[in-house]
Amino acid sequence: MTEPVSGGLAAAVWDMLTSALEAYQDSPTAAEWLGYHMKRFSEPLRIAVTGPAGTGKSTVVNAVVGERVAPIEASGRQVLTWYSEADEPQATVYGQDDSEQEVPVRHRGGRIGIDLGRWQHHEISRVAVQWPADRLRYATLIDTPADEAVSDEADAVIHLVRNVDDAGLAPLYAAMDSPVARSAPIGTLLVLSRADEIGAGRVDALSSARLIARRYDRNARLGGLCQQVIAVAGLVGYAGRTLTGSEYRQLRELAAIDRYTLDELLLSTDRFLRAETVPAGPDAEPGRTGTLPVGPEKRRALLDRFGLFGVRLATALIRGGCDTAEKLSAELVRRSGLADLCDAIDRDLTGRAEALKARSALLAVERLLATQPRAQARGLAADLERVLASAHDFRELRMVTAVRTGRTPFPPDLAAEALRLLGGEGTGIAQRLAVDRPATEARLRAAAIESLARWQDHATNPILGRDQRRVAAAVVRSCEGMIARLTQAPD
Questions:
Q1: Model confidence over 227-239: pLDDT tens digits?
Q2: What is the pLDDT of residue 5?
Q3: SS (H, E, C) the chain
Q4: C-alpha span between 362 and 381 (Å, rounded)
Q5: Which of 100, 106, 271, 451 has the maximum number of C-beta atoms within 10 A of its C-beta?
Q6: Nearest-angstrom CA–CA distance, 236 and 314
Q7: Whole-angstrom Cα distance, residue 77 to residue 143?
Q8: Which of 301, 310, 300 is nearest to 197 (CA)?
Q9: Cβ distance 78 to 53 under 8 Å?
Q10: Which phi and psi angles does 411 have, rounded to 5°?
Q11: Mean pLDDT in residue range 240-248
């Protein structure tokens, strides 16, 4: 095991884990637990995808990965599945009895197939799938069966709900039930799933869902539970990301049908599948009909891939100017909310991986102190409180959420600058300071000093409210940290 090289919070937590290992060296179970969490520092971030049944967790996993890898089922029931990056597909089943077995993996018809053989659902602890996908290089996705609690194994969470109510949010409330969890905000993205069903499936349904998500973003009740609320139509996003040339041609043929006629055809799944001919438009001769250009089997395949709303949206976009498969793919991904979700994963989760993994380690120490108290470990409790109180990384996470959602309002120009300096658009020093190449040390230091002076004024400005001054003080601390890092940087 190698000590984190970045210093700051990660180094402080590493030192605490080392001290805990010394205090519990006579306990093999505790030593194994602590060693496990030290090892996690060098591994990709673990992101659990959770939510009630019917929210489309596996569809979102597929959309993020870009291939149909989920769900994995045994005995007709979904099993807990971890997806990580590898050069070649591989799958391993871990049993409840601590046994493990590598099982065959097939890639057929655009989807993964795993032969679980003799394994029954109740015998399986989890299935680990290694898959060649760029998105998995920096994060392991954990596809969680419906209504399971947020796993202790996860560093961050993408939680799906159909409605933002106490029942849907219960797992997030439960995950906050400890002093460390309440002090150090978990990296959580709350997803309003199946957003295309809002507004009775109208073509503008996703715009309506996005507005609803923004209203929830400003809800103070959600402030401690999540960093952002994002509306996502997972099926549309996945279909857009994996759109084929033949599918585009079929959709283009449908879009060429008279608009009035196509709208009638797409009123229901039954109409779309059963129709053999189509009535002519309102300006044609009465009683005139034509043959549908896309056969019933291909229409059924389009419905399976896009859903009825997705077909409506895709044909409308083609009529509106998406004249290539690439343009249609990009627009479907953007409108579905998948692009927003992937940006948030990169910015708020994998971009904060070190802080989120440190949080997991702090939770591990907290649990160990609660379950195995001992005299040699008394100093660890004080160290834990000290790290939580001084960890600027966690403060930044809270302030970024407050500013981005508008819970702490600022004028647009100040809000944009605060977000950037707090790492809300990327945690690199050049990104925070908006210094383009060449980002020399001298340019970065000058930009940081200028930003520090400006935000020191904001932090003491009596015109600003208390919450605004708290954000400004956090920005000041971020600027000071950048200046300190640049000063310590080797020539």
A1: 889 999 999 999 9
A2: 42
A3: CCCCCCCHHHHHHHHHHHHHHHHCCCCHHHHHHHHHHHHHCCCCEEEEEECCCCCCHHHHHHHHHCCECCCCEECCEECCEEEEECCCCEEEEEECCCCEEEECEEEECCEEEECCCCCCHHHEEEEEEEECCHHHCCEEEEECCCCCCCCCCCCEEEEEECCCCHHHHHHHHHHCCCHHHHHCCCEEEEEEECHHHCCCCCCCHHHHHHHHHHHHHCCHHHCCCCCEEEEECHHHHHHHHCCCHHHHHHHHHHHCCCHHHHHHHCCCHHHHHHCCEEECCCCCCCCCEEECCCCHHHHHHHHHHHHHHHHHHHHHHHHCCCCCHHHHHHHHHHHHCHHHHHHHHHHHHHHHHHHHHHHHHHHHHHHHHHHCCCHHHHHHHHHHHHHHHHCHHHHHHHHHHHHHCCCCCCCHHHHHHHHHHCCCCCCCHHHHHCCCCCCCHHHHHHHHHHHHHHHHHHHCCCCCCHHHHHHHHHHHHHHHHHHHHHHHCCC
A4: 11
A5: 451
A6: 9
A7: 13
A8: 310
A9: no
A10: -55, 150
A11: 96
CA distance 377 to 366: 11
**pLDDT 10s digits, 71-84:** 999 988 999 999 99
Q: Work out the pLDDT band at 281, boundaries 50, 70, 90.
A: low
455, 414 Cβ separation under 8 angstroms: no
Q: What is the pLDDT of residue 491?
A: 45
Where residue 31 falls among pLDDT bands split at 50, 70, 90?
very high
User: Token match 């994996």: residue?
Assistant: 242
Taking alpha carbons only, the member of 126, 117, 109 closest to residue 71 is 126
> Which residue's structure tokens are 């109208």?
202
Return the residue matching tokens 């009596």.
462
Residue whose tokens read 């059963």? 274
- Give me the residue label for tokens 């809002």: 198
Q: Which two tokens stand for residue 268?
A: 């229901």
Report the distance separating Cα 474 and Cα 443, nearest Å.
Answer: 22
Q: Which residues contact 116 (CB under 8 A, 6 or more apart)?
A: 72, 74, 93, 103, 124, 127
Quote the distance between the C-alpha of residue 210 and its chain's center. 16
